[in-house]
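Dear support,

I submitted the protein below through the web form. The confirmation email said the job was done, but the results page showed an empty box. After a refresh the structure appeared. I'm attaching both so you can tell me whether what I see now is the final result or a partial one.
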Amino acid sequence: MDISRPSCAILLLVAFCLLHLATCMNAKINFREKEKQILDQILGPGRYDARIRPSGINGTDGPAVVSVNIFVRSISKIDDVTMEYSVQLTFREQWLDERLKFNNLGGRLKYLTLTEANRVWMPDLFFSNEKEGHFHNIIMPNVYIRIFPNGNVLYSIRISLTLSCPMNLKLYPLDKQTCSLRMASYGWTTDDLVFLWKEGDPVQVVKNLHLPRFTLEKFLTDYCNSKTNTGEYSCLKVDLLFKREFSYYLIQIYIPCCMLVIVSWVSFWLDQGAVPARVSLGVTTLLTMATQSSGINASLPPVSYTKAIDVWTGVCLTFVFGALLEFALVNYASRSDMHRENMKKTRREMEAAASMDAASDLLDTDSNTTFAMKPLVRGADPKIRQCEIHMSPPRKNCCRLWISKFPTRSKRIDVISRITFPLVFALFNVIYWSTYLFRDEEEEK
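What the results page shows now:
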């Protein structure tokens, strides 16, 4: 028993010394130096060739599979005239390259980081509907490549793109537009390279995304493989559904047009003799409405079909022009009424002159001659009296009775216009909004 106790103490001391020595050795390891050695080892000349694509799944000769996911950082503009939109996103690709496997030193090296994309093989992905694009190099290039111990490669880069977005503006500004982002392989066919959306959450959008005239309702991911004379190429796409904010157009277009139409109706309440006031009011509203319409069309592309805003501005312009023509009709009717009154006055004067001449002729006859004056009604024929009893004045309906209160035709035209124009415009509004709002819902379904 006395011999075993010193032996145990010696063994414990030796184990403690060995543990302390191992700890000191680990503390002196320079992992950055180890990273350099591992990179020189796996990417050294004669060992790795970036021109050769990786093997397929499980080391087979099948196509290399690349998983893609994107993070939409911002959408700066959606241009209706050029039919394009600008987006800034973080683009990520991930694939397996077994030639890049390395020892992770017991889990101490999670991954290796590169900033030079030409050191490893890269998929030849391009954006098929891109108009312009650039990388971000402030302060350093916003790109990195991570190589994991099992050979997985993660490529991440921040880019800004201007992409084409064909639009259908028939329902403008009550429309919804779908803008796509298409990514495809340029040179590798599906026999060599296949793009897949990353499982889980392939597309992410920043939470505080704000657009001045649109709202991003939803986005959908899909595949769009294309076949050409040189083969079939893998393609990915994401559809962004934008809904146009109607409140801006309601304040800037629809309400001002309604106000102009209502102002043009003020001339119906002015006196018929106020020619300068009615003419200036009609011409001013007409020119203002025409300027408003031309300004709206200047902010839109010249398309061959009729837009919803064209129907609105065209009808409003017609109402304003109709109010101006109404005054022309009133002016013509007023002069016609004056001419008719003058004719009646002249006819009455002529009849009065004729009656005076007849009376004078009677006074100039022989004084011995006497004439028996017979009453006109009492001595009338009974048949004529019977006809007079049965000929009662025709009954007038409410509208004719109300119209008859206004003696002149010009006044009647103004009174009828005061009621007809607002009723027709209200009916147009009911038809317009019900048609385009319901059509929008049907197309959404």
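Response: this is the final, complete result; the empty box was a page-load delay. The longest strand covers residues 64-79.
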